[in-house]
Write a structure and sequence with these properties.
Layout (H helix, E strand, L loop, with lengths): L10 H19 L8 H26 L14 E9 L4 E9 L2 E8 L2 E8 L10 E2 L4 E10 L1 H31 L4 H15 L3 H22 L7 H26 L3 H9 L4 H31 L11 H12 L2 H32 L1
Antiparallel strand pairs: 1-6, 2-3, 2-5, 3-4
């Protein structure tokens, strides 16, 4: 701030300007104090509440005299099994030879001879010994997949195949739903209303006990192979998901402005070409989130396949609980495995959304 003239000519004015300048300078030096971080406070509250719930649940289990056995959980994923090789005939051990890392034992008796290959060298008999039917000749260790891991892989396999077929069925049905052809439109509406109006569990029962029996009987009379129950479960899930995917596809297509189709047709494109190159790519970006939700529900709905003797994750967990009497640990692990599957699918869909947004 500049004051022209002598300070003596206007002492009062100079003093006032000087005070104003001094006050402004002092105000600039004042550093405002930081406010309280409310977000941090609520994060701390959330952490404390979560820990409190976990401790409360643990205390409640202690009141019921439940003993936690988390150390037994790994064997339900992968374990080492001891396999016994037993004699199938009665006779004398005539030869024990080595073949690489394996042992070959020959037992002769009653004019018959049997040879047994034992991985490793853990042979429990000697040459010249007499063995009887059922006697242990040798023992070896074998790495095997646990019940939970096996059930998780079956759940993953069933879900992936059902999702793929569900997308194809839903895409065709969704296009038929908005078609001007009365046959296609009415057929799509009938299929969608029947599937969406009945419970999935009932549909699984119909596929397994009714349609599965009829189809396998016809195949048996024709001298052909029998279809395993796993594929009837996949069919029920795929057709169930296809009805919901069809409505998602229909809504996505109808959300695109009709002017897009008219502009494409005016450029000489056929209706099919315009739908494939113009409408569907735009609709795909909009239907990704609801499709992800539907497929996540499909993974969880696959737990119903246990009622038709498919050992998916839920049925495997139920069998493990029956044999081990560890319901708390096993059901918690089951829930975590489902969460891993659904969360992975959710992350993959978010990746697709980012890629389509950048395109």
């Amino acid at each position: 701030m500049t004051i022209r003239g002598s300070p003596k000519a206007a002492p009062g004015l100079f003093s006032r300007f000087y005070l104003i300048e001094l006050t402004m300078t002092e105000e600039k030096k004042i550093v405002p104090a930081k406010g309280f971080d409310k977000n941090l406070m609520w994060k701390v509250v959330y952490a404390v509440a979560l820990i409190g719930v976990c401790l409360g649940f643990y205390w409640a289990t202690m009141q019921t005299d439940y003993i936690w056995r988390w150390n037994r959980i790994p064997r339900y994923f992968y374990y080492t099994d001891t396999v016994n090789i037993n004699a199938e005939i009665e006779g004398e051990v005539t030869s024990i030879t080595r073949k690489g890392e394996d042992s070959v034992v020959i037992v002769s008796g009653g004019g018959d001879s049997e040879y047994y290959t034992i991985p490793g060298s853990d042979v429990r008999i000697s040459q010249g010994d007499t063995v009887y039917m059922g006697d242990t000749i040798g023992v070896y260790s074998e790495q095997k997949m646990g019940m939970l891991l096996e059930g998780m892989l079956i759940t993953l396999e069933v879900s992936i195949v059902a999702i793929m077929f569900g997308i194809l069925i839903g895409l065709f049905t969704g296009l038929s739903r908005i078609s001007t052809n009365p046959f296609l439109k009415m057929s799509a509406i009938t299929y969608i209303e029947i599937i969406r109006g009945t419970p999935l569990l009932v549909q699984i029962m119909i596929w397994y006990f009714v349609l599965g029996t009829i189809i396998n009987n016809l195949l048996l009379k024709a001298g052909m192979f029998q279809i395993p129950e796993l594929w009837f479960g996949v069919a029920s899930l795929a057709i169930f998901a296809g009805a919901y995917v069809a409505e998602i596809v229909r809504a996505g297509i109808q959300s695109i402005n009709r002017g897009q189709m008219e502009a494409a047709r005016s450029l000489g494109m056929t209706k099919i070409t315009a739908m494939r190159k113009i409408i569907l790519p735009q609709a795909f970006k909009r239907i990704l989130p609801p499709l992800a939700g539907q497929f996540i529900s499909l993974i969880k709905d696959s737990s119903l396949l246990g009622v038709i003797a498919i050992r998916e994750l839920t049925k495997a967990t139920r069998e493990a609980v029956t044999t081990s009497l560890m319901p708390y640990e096993l059901w918690f692990v089951c829930g975590i495995l489902y969460l891993v599957l659904t969360f992975s699918l959710s992350m993959f869909v978010q990746y697709l959304e980012q890629r389509t947004a950048e395109a």
